[in-house]
C-alpha cells in the first residue's frame, strides 16, 4: 500500500554578526532536512510558516518551493536547505507545513515540527 510522508528535521543558529540587539533585530538561520519516508516519489510544491516572537507577534509566510527549488524526492531521498529569519526579540518559534504532490497525484502536507529560535545562553 502506498504511503505519503516527508519527515522534516531542523537545526537552528543565531547570527550575532548580522544581528543588532540595540535595534531589536535578532537574525537566525535554520537548516532543514526533508526526507521522503513514504513509499511514493513526491514533490514539495509550496510552504507555509507561522513565525512568532517572544512578544507573541505572529507573521505568516507562504510561497512556492523552498530557496527557489521544488524538489522531487524518491522514497529514501532527502533535500537540505538553509534559510533565515529576523525577529524583534531574542527568542521565538517557527512551525508550518509543506504542501506536496505525489507522482500518482495524491496531495498531502508534511508537517514542520515547531522549533525554537533563541540566543545561546552565555555564562559569566
Give a quick precis of the structure.
With 124 residues, this protein is mainly β.
Characterise the protein shown here.
By secondary structure, the protein is mainly beta. It has a single domain, classed as ApaG domain (Immunoglobulin-like), CATH 2.60.40. Helices cover 0% and strands 60% of the residues. It has strands spanning 6-14, 26-36, 42-53, 58-64, 72-73, 78-87, 91-102, 107-118. Strands 3, 4, 5, 7 and 8 form a five-stranded antiparallel β-sheet that branches. Strands 1-2-6 form a three-stranded antiparallel β-sheet, with no helix packed on it. A hairpin with a 4-residue loop joins strand 3 and strand 4 (58-64). The protein starts with 5 loop residues before the first strand and ends in a 6-residue tail after the last strand. The model has no long low-confidence stretch (mean pLDDT 96). It comes from Pseudoduganella aquatica. This is Protein ApaG. Residues 1-124 form the ApaG domain.
Oligomer status: single chain
Global morphology: elongated
Roughly what fraction of the amino acids lie in strands?
A: over 45%
Q: Specify the biggest β-sheet.
A: 5 strands, antiparallel
Structural class: mainly beta
* Poorly predicted residue ranges: none
The tally of beta strands, per DSSP, is 8
The CATH class, by name, is: Mainly Beta
Task: State the fourth-level CATH superfamily.
Answer: ApaG domain
Architecture, according to CATH?
Answer: Sandwich
- What value does the average pLDDT take? 96
Domain ApaG: 1-124
Pfam family, one: DUF525
Protein name: Protein ApaG
InterPro entries: ApaG-like, ApaG_domain, ApaG_sf, Uncharacterised_ApaG
Amino acid at each position: 500500500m502506498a504511503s505519503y510522508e516527508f519527515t522534516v528535521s531542523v537545526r537552528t543558529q543565531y547570527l550575532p554578526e548580522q544581528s543588532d540587539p540595540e535595534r531589536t533585530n535578532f537574525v537566525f538561520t535554520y537548516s532543514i532536512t526533508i526526507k521522503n519516508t513514504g513509499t511514493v516519489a513526491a514533490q514539495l510544491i509550496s510552504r507555509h510558516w507561522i513565525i512568532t516572537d517572544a512578544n507573541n507577534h505572529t507573521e505568516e509566510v507562504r510561497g512556492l518551493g523552498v530557496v527557489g527549488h521544488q524538489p522531487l524526492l524518491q522514497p529514501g531521498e532527502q533535500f537540505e536547505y538553509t534559510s533565515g529569519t529576523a525577529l524583534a526579540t531574542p527568542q521565538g518559534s517557527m512551525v508550518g507545513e509543506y504542501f506536496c504532490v505525489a507522482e500518482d497525484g495524491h496531495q498531502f502536507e508534511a508537517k514542520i515540527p515547531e522549533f525554537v529560535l533563541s540566543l545561546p545562553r552565555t555564562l559569566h
